[in-house]
Automatic annotation (TrEMBL):
InterPro entries on file: Ntn_hydrolases_N (IPR029055), Peptidase_T2 (IPR000246)
Domain of life: Bacteria
Gene3D superfamilies named in the record: (Glycosyl)asparaginase
Upper classification of the organism: Bacteria, Pseudomonadati, Bacteroidota, Cytophagia, Cytophagales
Protein name as catalogued: N(4)-(Beta-N-acetylglucosaminyl)-L-asparaginase
Amino acid sequence: MSERRKFIKQSLMGSALIIPGIQSLASPVKPALSKVEKPLLLSTWNHGLPANAAAIEKLKAGGSITDAVEYGVRDTENDLSNLSVGLQGLPDREGITTLDASIMNGDGSCGSVAFVRQVKHPISLARMVMEQTPHVMLAGEGARQFAMAEGIPMEKEELSPKAKEAYERWKVKSQYKPVINIENHDTIGMIGMGADGKLSGSCTTSGLAYKMHGRVGDSPIIGAGLYVDDEVGAATATGLGEAIIRVCGSFLIVELMRQGRSPQEACEEAVRRLISKNKNIKDIQAGFLAMNKEGEVGAYAVHPGFNFAQGTLSKNEMIDSNSHFK
Ligand code: SD4
């Protein structure tokens, strides 16, 4: 193992994002967000705003809620300025960009792709896995071959100029630092409810920058990065995937809502659980976003900085999430 690899492996074990200004544990914020009209779309981070707008356009054109959450996040996958979603995202430590995505409907149907290369719209490939295969998840080369068999053109494996420049800078020290809250542009998770009350969700990412080759995050793991159940509600996650997987974050939130918690209470409880199960919490960011089938909304994060877009037919706006640490 090269010295660089050894160093990264060690750094991975004690992840290293230092978030300034964290002083003390704060008391949990009480539910602040109220019931919203249908259809309703919620998306993580600032790029959620144009993604919601694209999803709403799809609904207005007669698309289903599944079409809306797919086409909404395709907008983010297309955004060349985005360094954490799509093929323009920051690469792994070998300089290769690999993508994770998942999609789920409230009737339990779901599909995902993990560690996939050269596919411009992994969310659409995840939907094909859901609708055209007997499986839930395809990974790596198998996912790429499935895409080719479905006639999806393979993109040239080439870093975007911004990603290349960042990678060259990173290589100087080759330090593994999970930088989350990247300029308020990170993984996009979108959950939506159609006018008929049916729920659907999507999640797509290039994952953590400079991750080990082959690393898969929470985003394509049903129950971790995304979970949707028409009987209860939907949840999605953003942040350090390892921490989110450890507590099955999105599934946990939906189950807490099933037991009677509001989306806000469920997100707060999931953050508390995540904090209790992860060491070095000062270095870990994670945020959850949820809605129940009544159209109530909740969001909560470990640290400040998480925000989300809330879109209806009449309004699409950014909302700052509260966080456990202040
Ligand atoms: C992952 N959850 O792969 C993703 C990373 C991310 O906002 O950027 N989340 O772990």
